[in-house]
Amino acid sequence: MNTEPLQEKPPARIHATAEVSPAAKIGAGSRIWHYVQIREGAELGENCIVGKDVYIDFDVRVGNNVKIQNGAYLYHGLTVEDGVFIGPRAVFTNDVYPRAINPDGTLKGADDWEVGPTRVCYGASIGSGAIVLPNVTIGRFALVAAGAVVTRSVPDHGLVVGVPARLVGYACRCGRRMTPQGNGYFCSVCQWTFHPEELTP
C-alpha cells in the first residue's frame, strides 16, 4: 500500500488585470496573463498558458497543456483538445451567416444566429494570424500555417497554407514538414513514417 502523501497540484495563476468570470473553470497550474478575458461557462484545463489580450468566449472548452499566444480570439462553439498550440492573433469565428441585422432591419440578438462548431484536435498547431471559419475540424497534429484562412476541415497531420487554406503536405508530431516516401511521409528528425490512409474517418 502506498503511504506517500498525494502532492497537491499548483493553483492557477491569474494576473490582476485579467477578467475571469466566476462562472468559468480554470485548471490547476494554468497561467492567465495581462488583460485576458475569459467568459462565463468557459473551461480551461490544467497547465495551460494564456497570453496577453486573449479573449475566450462563453462555453468554450480548452483541454490540458494548451498554449494560447497573445491576442488570440476563441469564440463560442470552439472545442480545443489537449496539447494544442494557438499562435498570436489567431481567430476562431463562429457565425455561419454573419449579419448585424435581421431581414426586417432589426438588430440581431442572441437567438437570431446559428453557431458553427469548430474542433481543434490533440497536438495541432494554429499559426500566427490564421483565421478558422466555423464548421471545421482540424485533425490531430495538423499544422495551419501563419496567415492561412481555414474554410474546410484539415486531416490528421495535414499541413495547410494560403487563402483559402489548401493541403500541401503533412507535418510530423515534432512540427516539421515530412517528405514523401513510398506510400507515406517520413520525418528525418524523428525517424517516423506516417501513412495518410491510416487516418481515422
Automatic annotation (TrEMBL):
<dbReference type="Pfam" id="PF14602">
    <property type="entry name" value="Hexapep_2"/>
</dbReference>
<dbReference type="InterPro" id="IPR001451">
    <property type="entry name" value="Hexapep"/>
</dbReference>
<dbReference type="GO" id="GO:0016740">
    <property type="term" value="F:transferase activity"/>
</dbReference>
<dbReference type="InterPro" id="IPR050179">
    <property type="entry name" value="Trans_hexapeptide_repeat"/>
</dbReference>
<dbReference type="Pfam" id="PF00132">
    <property type="entry name" value="Hexapep"/>
</dbReference>
<dbReference type="InterPro" id="IPR018357">
    <property type="entry name" value="Hexapep_transf_CS"/>
</dbReference>
<protein>
    <submittedName>
        <fullName>UDP-3-O-[3-hydroxymyristoyl] glucosamine N-acyltransferase</fullName>
    </submittedName>
</protein>
<keyword id="KW-0677">Repeat</keyword>
<keyword id="KW-0808">Transferase</keyword>
<dbReference type="InterPro" id="IPR011004">
    <property type="entry name" value="Trimer_LpxA-like_sf"/>
</dbReference>
